[in-house]
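Figure S7 source data.
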Amino acid sequence: MDTQLLQKAYTLIESAENILIAIHEQPDGDALASACLMAEILSRLNKKYELYCSSRITQPDSFLPHLEEFKNYQENFNFDLIIILDCGSVERTKLVKEILNRRPDQRVLEIDHHPKIKDYADLEIRDPAAAATAEILYYFLKANKIKINKNLANCVLAGILTDTGNFLYPSTSPATVNIASEMLASGAKLPQIMENTWRNKSIASMKTWGKALARLKINRQYDFGFTVLKSEDVPAEITEEELEGLAGFLSNLNEVNGILLLRQMPDGRIRGSLRTARPNIDVSKLARSLGGGGHTKAAGFTVEGKLEKTENGWKII
Ligand SMILES: [Mn+2]
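Tokens for the predicted manganese (II) ion complex:
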């Protein structure tokens, strides 16, 4: 990581007074942990800040420090610095108009590990090789000599564990594991993180996973695992986080190039999740061609349509 760039980011933060921290809709553990880490830094600097996510946060407040401060609405966009974390594109913040039409005195700092799509920030820190945005933020803490307290350690570890599927995904590097170890030594609570990220499945969500598993098929033409969830398979009380690990779990299927999970959403759209463990396959290309995005090994897209059963599988109509 470029230490100078990380220090420049800190200078930008220090010189701002009224700051917005924004993450992507349907936030995952890394997005939330990264935002909470930034909130912890800003509160230590006595800065005025707001945490924003367009989706409602459903995790218990005890998961991460500052989680209860999140708002899913924006009243007046009067910030002098907007910090955007873990968003592959500006669209994912759901603040496109506000950000792209900002005043010249409103600066944007972007910290992310998705592949670059478009420039829009005043200062961009991007490392697609990093396992998590929280991993980049670890280097940010180090570069700026910020003491890693229990809260910060919890955020870094939570982001790393959720974005690597508990060290299962190929993005896990020796540095990733070393950082996790250092966070444990700094007081991060591994059991508490696991309770909130992995051991948080209700019986209803387990049964939904079961439906997806029961329908799993292999398309031999592409050697791709494939399954669907219809909207009636997913009871309303099941949260996005409970379904979050399903695609990752399906990617444990052996002898395939990857997996595709298609889910009929209540709004009439279809969400697709792609995973691969093959070093030479980049599923983000396929996701991007369908208007989505993501990482080389884990990506997703949303399309308009309806799932229909055919003789030997499913199609989108
Ligand atoms: Mn991430």
